[in-house]
Amino acid sequence: MKSRGTLQSISRLPQISSGTAIAWASLTSLIAASGLLSTAQAQPLRATPAPVQVTVNSPLDGEIEADEVVTLREAIAITNGVLNKGDLSEAERAQISPSKDHSRIDFDLPSDNTTIRLQTLLPTITNPGLMIDGTSQTGYALVDGDASAPAPVVALTPAEDAEVFRGLTLAADRVHIRALSLYGFTSIHKTTATTPPADIFIAHRLLPSKRLKEDNPWVSYPYDDERDIPPQGIVIEDNWLGITPQGNAPDAARSAFGISIYNGIGTRILNNRIAQHDGSAVITSVRAEQTEIANNIIEQNGLAGMPDAIRLEGDIDGTKIHTNQIQQNAGSAVYLFKPEGSVMVEKNLIADNGQRFRRAAILLMGDNHHVVNNTIQNQPGPGVVITSYPTSKRNFILDNRFANLDGLSIDLIARENRFLDRFSRISINRVDLGDRSSTRVQDYQVGDGPNPLRNSDQRKRDTANRGLNTPQFLSSEFYLMDGAVNLDGEADPGAEIVLYKVMEEGKQGPLNEPVTMVKSDEEGRFAITLTDAKPGDRFSAIAIHPDSGTSEPARNIIILELK
Is the bond preceding 222 in cis, omega lying within 30 degrees of 0? Predict the structure, then answer.
């Protein structure tokens, strides 16, 4: 029987809880422990149903039955093609009409009760091209000239005393989820027995039974069952995930993750507000190529689980993360864990992260990543850390602005950092200078400090970005003469040298503002002439080489007046 939803009071932001057991567990290992989608949802392959428009006019949930209203559960079953019009009442059939190009689910809920409180997990969405459109609900209003999405009116959340670990499960191409609020989806009591919980979970339709018997069932190519094919072109747009339509955290359990891309290609996550999750706002696992994460506000996530706002693993080639506000999350803003492929991180505001853990604002593993034109500030750790394991080279950190960091703006990890001396660490308390030094696990998250000059080809193999040398200025002090100053130095031959102005005291190489760029000659020499420098100005520099990537910042220099 369908149960009636009731409005509940909404409290302000709760204190951080500690009961969720999803912290640090690999998404892959969780899924390997069980089937990807519940076997109760397994459905045989069928032709795509004729496109229809279904209007949900009731916030109720429960068993599907012929009555006077259409619920969201029934609307999904209708668009999936598993609930026929002949099984519906006349009043329900009146809420269904043909649609021109693709199926859609619209809403006409009572104005005083627009929260759908789910009793159990909704059916997996398997109809390609389906749009679930929260903008159709009366009361939703786009503001002309305002690029930000207004608060959703339609909300999905578990019913009181019901544990529903996912809001929507998407397993078809070109599904479009728009202008919904989803919150409270977690699995606190069954985290080892279910697949990862999330507001929105993206995956193929069902793992074949034979693959469930394998030790590691998530990797097998080529596909031997068309249900294995990852859904492509999913769009998640203008939603509020993890928070209510009032902008508050739920008064009961928080959602575990925001968007979990277990297996999907070309997913677009656009203009959402993603906040107040126990774990990451966006997390990937097996395949997430060509993902676009753009124009979102991602804040206050990782409160009691996986701390990083965006955590990427698996095949992520072609992923773009741009023009987002990523702030006040528990760990890193972007954290790559042994990925395949490369990503672009561009034009984001990344500020005040690391609220629970000291770590880099951005942590990169792998090759050919680009971090371009971001503002990265107020981090209890370095700006960008690039690890040396398994391999990391040709990573380009370009035209960013760093400020107020506890560490280097760019830190290249050395796998066996045995050459370091007391001047090569930010804090000498982190290493026993009497012993051979080696890189520890925490060094990959918070950096290992400035590297010494490369003195062998081995350093190219065991250091990120092939151990590209930092520029070495010929002096720590340069003098103004006739209104100009010449800055001379050495670097790897053929490197682009980017000069940065330093506006923070007492730190090495805070890359606050890019100034100019020159190229070192065949012998590695470079010279920069400044005509607008003033006494007391300080500068640092980085080197960029097409075969290696970007270096760590140089030691600061200061401009003095010749007297």
Answer: yes
